[in-house]
Amino acid sequence: MSFRVIDEVPVDPGSARVYPEGWQSWSPTTWYPVGREGHWPQGARQHTMRFRPGVALPERGVQGEGLLVLDPGDGQPARRYATVDASEQVASIRARLDMDTVVVSATDEVATSTHAEGPMAALTSYGEQFAARAGVVELRPAPRVWSSWYQYFLDVTAADIAENAAAFDDHDLPFDLVQIDDGWSHGIGESTRLTAGFAALPRLVDQIHAAGRQVGIWLAPFLVGVDSDLARRHPDWCVGPAGYNWGQDLTGLDLTHPGVREHLFATVRGLGDLGVGYLKLDFLYGGAVDGRRHHDVTAVAAYRSGLELIREAAGPETFVLGCGAPILPSVGLVDAMRVSPDTFHEGAEDGSDGLRGRMSLIARAWQQGRFWINDPDCLVARPSYRLREGWADTVREFGGLRSSSDRVAALDQWGLKTTRALLRDAPAPAPFSAAVLESSRTIATDHDSGVAPR
Question: What is residue 125's three-state secondary structure?
Fold first, then answer.
């Protein structure tokens, strides 16, 4: 992959700013001072799971995937460099400061435009134009979600879900939907075989429905563990390395393979038949890793075809949330998108990792109401999370989808009041105000990024 210089722009090195869009939900995305280096993965595994797999990062400057906006800082119009159509390929775009000039280069064809109204107009107009081309129709309101993940992680049981669902009305918590996160099945590559703790999943779904709430479920459909049953039985379904999790190396699935497609369709349709009306599709980047496929198409085209298949299998009434998903290739196929890393990982429940999702969540505020509903990840409001007040403020200002992940019994009065207020104040599926967008141009601290600074 080679980069070709497409522009050279004189700038004020002290005031110029650049916005490079990250590859997927968890990729660091923010406004950088023009002379600053971009964030950098800590090793090959994080590169695969947080940046664009198989695409090198620059030794100098920053790199965007499909979109980069430059504010010269001297009164010149902002400049935008962007992929127009992400159904087949997404250009990587670099910007580096050379004395008082920014040199912009790209791997593939991009559209260049100038915006006298400023850099935010460059982003919002792109959002509107790109969404129209990608087939985004009127967005529907997101349900208010309770998730099991940040309280129970993989140790969740049906009894845990039932306990919390029964407590919502007692504490006036207006959740619309109960989302059962990872832990309900035996894991990726083991189909949807239930764990012992969820042997009675159909009965649990019926109980939640009887209480007037919807049911959602977590799924990582585009990758499997290399030691899983599916990978052992169907090595020809596997494409290439997709990182490491659940105690094993991961491999992406070939979304062009007829057997994979049949498997995915049956899995998603089966969950719908069970009564699941909300899908959290996680680790979606696995569908776009490098490797040979059954059909000779680009990784981006394979990924989008797989997401289209799931959308078809789920049906038009199912609300689909993407996570760990390539940003531009997903537009038009999901109702909501996680636009930031996880709130925390297991072992950092006290907030010791910082507000990991804050940086990218703020910077991607312009995508709300244009591409989809921005999911900031879950509010955590229990007393043991020492950053709960700052996180609640961030979710309130920049979150489009409202979700919470505390055991209700673990909430104190502040936690109950804050959760209740945020659920009641859920925003419409529309773009954020000009004031919110202007504040989103902040340059967040590295501690809020979830990855190391360069």
Answer: helix
The Cα–Cα gap between 299 and 288 comes to 5
DSSP secondary structure of 190-219: STTPBPGGGTTHHHHHHHHHHTT-EEEEEE
- What value, to the nearest 5°, has the Cα angle with vertex 16 and ends 89 and 121? 60
Alpha helix (H) ranges present in 258-408?
258-274, 299-314, 327-330, 358-363, 388-398
pTM (predicted TM-score): 0.97
- What residue spans define the domains of the chain? 4-134, 145-442
pLDDT in tens, 87-145: 999 999 999 999 999 999 999 999 999 999 999 999 999 999 999 999 999 999 999 99
Q: Name the average pLDDT for the chain.
A: 96
| Six-digit token string for 339 | 């636009």
C-alpha 129/C-alpha 174 separation (Å) is 35
Distance CA 318, CA 38 (A): 37
Residue for token pair 């920053």:
62
What is the C-alpha to C-alpha distance for residues 93 and 326, in angstroms, rounded to an integer? 15
- Domain 145-442, CATH among 1.20.970.10, 3.40.50.150, 1.10.3210.10, 3.20.20.70: 3.20.20.70
Whether residue 10 contacts residue 18, with contact meaning beta carbons closer than 8 Å, is answered with no
Counts for the chain of helices (H) and strands (E), in that order = 13, 20
